[in-house]
Amino acid sequence: MTIRSARIEAKLLIPGRGDPVSGGCVVIDGGTITYAGTTGNAPETPGAEIHQVPVVMSGMWDCHSHFFGTESADLTQLATTPLPMLAVRAARDAHTLLMAGFTSTREMGGIGVHLGRLVDEGTLVGPTIYGAGSALGPTAGHSDIHWMPESWRDDLAASGVGWVAVCDGVEECIKAVRRQIRVGAKVIKINATGGTMSHFDHPDHRQFNDKELRAIVEEATMAGLAVGAHCHGLAGVAAATRAGVTTIEHCSTLDQETAELMLEMGTMAVPTRHAVEYLVSLKGQIPDWAWQAQAKVERTHAAAMRLAISSGIPIATGADIMVSGALWGTNGMELAALVKAGMSPLQAIEAATANGPATLGPRAPRSGLLAEGYDADLIAVASNPLDDITVLGDSSQVTMVWKGGRLVKSPGASPPPYGR
Question: Which pTM does this prediction carry?
């Protein structure tokens, strides 16, 4: 697909940060936005493709995704399913995510580091993928698969499926970071507390000691990489924040003191609220031990989100979808969850657009805003999301998608997942 100049005129332009513009216009040339503002002040664009749409806004960011390719939340499927099958399913999910209006994603454990290369070379039509490789955690922690013999677990880690990276002690933690860099990680993911979908660890319990956390952050920082920390319990949130991580994933427990610490450190939150609500709805469909752990997380999560929002902690959206298939494309429902927790629709859109790049720390691209000089990643929406934020969770309402200046979705003319 050739990158061409285009002029998108809209009844409403939502820039990502700042006030909406009635009668807006975006001009793109190559892969860059050259103008965004009112149609009346737009430059002449001879030869450009002209599109008239109801609403234009920046392409969205899903800052917490997982391209696993498994058909259930059972992580043992990573060991029992052939890697080519996992990869093809995950590639389909990546394409679905782009068609839902998400032009970028920060993939926090999975095979996204490999899918990202396929997108970059033009083989796969998908969002720009900033993959973490495998999620780092200690023995018996959330990165471990507890019911699997250690030798099997280690073989699985060596296969590159992108979840298991067990490391204990400062030296192993440093080496684990370097291994993710070796496979092309664009961000480092750690599990700083237990989780809900791993058997013997507890969501409240902290994982990694202070020396290990600092070593991980320092090693990542030397490579210009942000660190995202999975945290449910308050002790993990506070410890990861003190260590200097860029983002707290889930942030399921929060008090005023820790909120102030996050503000002082400039730490962002990626709450994944919609996923928390969804997993609680699966009673009887997931193991009871997993549901009980998820229910405990849910009891504190809503209050933590409200406190994060009211405290002014920077928030980015993440859907935390880990199962391949039908849930992909509904990622935008996270915005509705943020609104339910106390954000305005405009704030939720900022969390899904302008705030996304900052989750990558020093590697943040010029993306997420409709502004001159920014990447030409933008979407057209059939109706005003400021009136009904749920339209951004419905892929059919995202009628056009431009990624890097290329029109990759339009009515009746969207490419299949595999390009070239």
Answer: 0.94
